Every structure is written in C-alpha cells, then in structure tokens.
Amino acid sequence: MGFNYIRFTSPGSGKKCNEDAVETAEVDGGLLAILCDGVGGDNGGDLAARIALKSALHFFSASENDNYLEKIKLTIEDSNSFVLNHSYTSEPMKNMATTLEMIYVKDNFVYWGHIGDSRIYQLKSKRLNQITKDHSLVQKLLDEGFITHKQAANHPQKNVIIKALGDNISIEPDISKIRLNVNEGNKFLICSDGVSNLVSHAELEDVLILSDLEEIKNKIIKMIKIRGAIDDYSFIIIEITK
Predict the structure, then answer these.
(1) Concatenated DSSP letters for 126-179?
(2) How far apart are CA 57 and CA 27, in angstroms?
(3) Is the entire prediction scored with pTM above 0.90?
(4) Residues with Cβ < 8 Å from 62, sequence gap 6 or more?
(5) 2-241 under CATH 3.60.40.10, yes or no
(6) Residue 21, helix vs strand vs coil
(7) Could you give the angle at the alpha carbon of 162 between the alpha carbons of 161 and 167, nearest 5°?
(8) What is the DSSP letter of 192?
(9) Is 23 left (phi over 0), alpha (psi -120 to 50) or beta?
(10) Bigger pLDDT: 156 or 217?
(11) What backbone phi and psi angles, to 5 degrees, belong to 205?
C-alpha cells in the first residue's frame, strides 16, 4: 500500500495573517499529516497554530512508540502543554488556542486524532463520510436537539469551539483508526472550517471523486475564492494507492 498527497493553505480574502498551519512528512515508512486552525487575540491564533504544528511534528517523529493511537494521543497532549506554556508568556497570547487534526497512514491503517472544529473526511467507494465530529457549541446544540441541521448551517455562534488545544490543562481528543481496503478507492481530506463552511458535503464528494489531486486542489480553491474566502482556508488530501 502507498499514498499520494497534496496540501494547501491560504489566508482569507484581505487578511495579512494566516492563522492556519499545515504540514505533511513521511515518518518511519508512513505518512503524517497535520492541520491546525488557530484562534486568539492579536497574533495569538497564528502563533498557537504554528506552535501546535511544530510540536506535534516533533513529538510524533521523535517517539519510538509503535502503538500509533497512543502515540497520537500523547502527541496531542504534549502539543497542548506547549501551547499553554507559551500562552502564559504574554498578556496578548493568554487566550490563544488552536484546533488540531492528525492522520498517520501506515501499512493498511489510517490512525487519526482530532480536537476542535476542523474536520477529517474519508472518501470510500466514491462516497464521502465525515469521520470527525465538531467540538463546537453548534454541534452540541444539534446533538441535544435544540436546533435543526438547517439552523446549524447559519447559526450566529457557529464558530464557537468548546474543545481546543490551549483551552485547558487536561484535554480529551478524539482518536481512532480505520482499516484500509486498497480496492475501495480511499481518499482522506483534512480541512479547516474555512473550507467546510463554504463548500458543501455534496460538492466535496463530487470533486474528491476526480483522479488528479492537483485538479481537486484547484477546484476547491476556486469554489472558495468565488464565495469570498471569508476565513483562512487550508486542506490536505491523501490518496491511498496499491
């Protein structure tokens, strides 16, 4: 089993500072992909995302633990500590936080970790599934039956996150793994909410079915730009090959 991948990040329209951060790295014969979307005053979001990304990449790559789910959990916890420690250094940074998505592809498995409202999707047999659940106020209201899916789509508090790195000393990221069948045409999309807020599930499915990753990337970028690119937008696409 192999993989192809592509990544992209851009500040939103008219913004000078990009508070998203993405990275891919081939580690121990597998592929590590990380995406962070920072929040916070001044440049806090930008800093939180970069700190979380660099620390996650370092911790995961340096660890010799071959229990990959545990490795992802410990990496996210260590990254949280790094973000918290930096937030104590200055007043403008004290409220900084960031989402974090991690995927590690190795052999016939995809291992993933998630905290915040960035997302991981899986395309399998030409059908797209969102495999993460947003850690957001709107998702909580939806789960508890206070609002409908239609109300959730345009809720005024849509961007309020209830879990993120830097929010608390103790965190509980979602982690899981997926066994892969190379004959099912698997692709994985990791994206910030600057993508998922502007491109619908059905549109993402239609474009991810395409075979060329560069074409997929360009089509997603075009849709976002046409719709105003109101937020920073970033994504990583991973294609599983035989």
Answers:
(1) TEEEE-S---BHHHHHHHTTSS-HHHHHT-TTTT-BSS-BTS-SS---EEEEEE
(2) 10
(3) yes
(4) none
(5) yes
(6) strand
(7) 95
(8) -
(9) beta
(10) 217
(11) -60, -45
